[in-house]
Amino acid sequence: MWEGCSAIQVRESSPGKTLSMKHYFGLDQYYFNQKKQQIPITLDTSQLINGHTLLCGMSGVGKSYQLRAMIASAQRSGIQVEVFDPHDELDIPGSKTAKYSEATRFGYNPLALNPDPHSGGVRKRINWLLTLLNSTSRKLGPKQETALRYLLQDIYYLNGCYEDKPSSWGKKHITEAQRAAFLEQNNYAALKQFYPTLGDLITYAERKIKALYLGANSPAITHLDKVNKMAAKLRRLVGQLEKVSDDDEAMKLEEKLEDYKHDTISAYSDYVHSIETGREFTDVIKYNSKDVMQSVFERLKNLDASGIFRPNPPPFGNAQVRVHQMKSLSDDEQRMLVQLRLEELFRTRRDQPTVNDVQQIVVIDEAHKFADEEGDNLLNILAKEGRKFGMGLWCASQSPTHFSEDFLTNCGTTILLGIHTTYWDGACRKLKIDESILRFIKPHHVAALKFQRKAETNARFQNVILSQPMPTQLHA
Ligand SMILES: Nc1ncnc2c1ncn2[C@@H]1O[C@H](COP(=O)(O)OP(=O)(O)O)[C@@H](O)[C@H]1O
Ligand SMILES: [Mg+2]
């Protein structure tokens, strides 16, 4: 059993202690070949502008191999490491691993709110969720997006999280098992202590669709419709009465009018008594299309089936190195999971005091799958702002062409392990380098490395002979 209801825990590495990581790659090729000197090439986070790293190379050149070795160095330095592994191949000794699949049912509640009165809340979460869905999988149509926004607003409201009341944004985190137990006991009141879940949203959407299929939505709407029709007839009778000159006829009409008034009042009374939620009328306007609602419902069911949005956080506990194995997920699901996790990791770090060292490293293998130029992509946010909060981002990918200008120009370390010739033009342009740098690389043997050091403005690539033991005098 695992206790998995809390949000991410920031592991207290060593409070007050400055962390720095050193990692030896190999020997400087120029000095080795030309001067017979062994000059070690070592990454030292304390000297770099930030802890970000880009590792580039085609399949098989050793990106995962280098990542494993670098993660081991980070581990020795006491840095926390969060690994996103799309191929389930980054097995790290001493790490804790979570494999996302139908069998493990690991996932996170995307509806959990940031309770911070300034940076959090219902409105921001809804906007973020809609952006997440639109940017990581098939874009929602405008009508679907509106319907989903209403559903989300309603579900937060029903759970007691109000848009304009920050004191209502802090709730407990529920697990799938807890939720099932409360539902089994029909204990709906208890559910209100927790954030709503995707399961709640689906149940609610289903209720709305059923109401739409039942026709006039609800008894209240049927009664109100009747009242409106009767009121219209009443007005016609009054109009007739005004035109009548014959006394007998006028009397008959007046009687009829009185009866009708009575019936209309009684219909109105029926309407008032049939009101269940007070929002029936708004619902008719909000959820007016069966087709739109049905498509939103299908979309929510698909999200639920993937499992990553179920509130079952993996039992990482206090583990220093955490590996998210995502091989069993689809590309869309992997993208959603990475954004969802990075958002919470970043938020948790951002709420701590700013720091000067690297305390946490986020490793993303096959990072081109998760990168784009959008400002709200968490990879770009981490690249831009992560350093202040002690976060380093390591991305491994086939080519630098997949990354934002922001990331490439803000990278403390760039490692080229052998880029495929189809990417050479783009890579040279993006990295502002000469093709000769790429030509000298020999996969598994010679890499090109660049460190952007704090006091340096003209960092250059240097060739490094890999897999050479560290010169003995430097071991001490
Ligand atoms: N520097 C290296 N020295 C020796 N073997 C290596 C080196 N780099 C990679 N390999 C081996 O090459 C194979 C492919 O490496 P891998 O890291 O999986 O490549 P990638 O992740 O870029 O596709 C693996 O068997 C790995 O052990
Ligand atoms: Mg790999």
What is the CATH first-level class name of the largest domain? Alpha Beta
Strand content: 5-15%
The mean pLDDT is: 90
Q: Can you give the helix content as a percent range?
A: 40-55%
Count of the separate structural domains: 3
Largest sheet: 11 strands, mixed
Sheet with the most strands: spatial strand order: 2-1-11-10-9-3-8-7-4-6-5
What series of H and E elements makes up the topology? EHEEHEEHHHHHHHHHEHEHEHEHHEE
Bound heterogens, unique: adenosine-5'-diphosphate, magnesium ion
Overall number of strands:
11
The coarse silhouette is elongated
- Going by CATH, what is the homologous superfamily of the largest domain? P-loop containing nucleotide triphosphate hydrolases
Instruction: Report the end-to-end length measured between terminal Cα atoms.
Output: 44 Å
Radius of gyration: 31 Å
CATH topology of the largest domain: Rossmann fold
Describe the structure.
The protein is an alpha/beta fold. The chain has three domains: about 20-100 and about 315-475, P-loop containing nucleotide triphosphate hydrolases (Rossmann fold, 3-Layer(aba) Sandwich), CATH 3.40.50; about 120-215 and about 280-305, Orthogonal Bundle (Helicase, Ruva Protein, domain 3), CATH 1.10.8; about 230-275, no CATH class. About 45% of the residues lie in helices and about 10% in strands. The protein is built from 16 helices and eleven strands. The chain has helices spanning about 30-35, 65-75, 120-135, 140-160, 175-185, 190, 200-215, 220-245, 245-275, 280-285, 290-305, 330-350, 380-385, 405-410, 425-430, 435-440, and strands spanning about 20-30, 40-45, 55, 80-85, 95-100, 320-325, 360-365, 390-395, 415, 445-450, 460-465. An eleven-stranded mixed sheet has the order 2-1-11-10-9-3-8-7-4-6-5. α7 (about 200-215) packs antiparallel against α11. The longest helix has 28 residues, at about 245-275. The radius of gyration is 31 Å and the shape is elongated. It starts with about 20 loop residues before the first strand and ends in a 10-residue tail after the last strand. The structure holds adenosine-5'-diphosphate and magnesium ion.
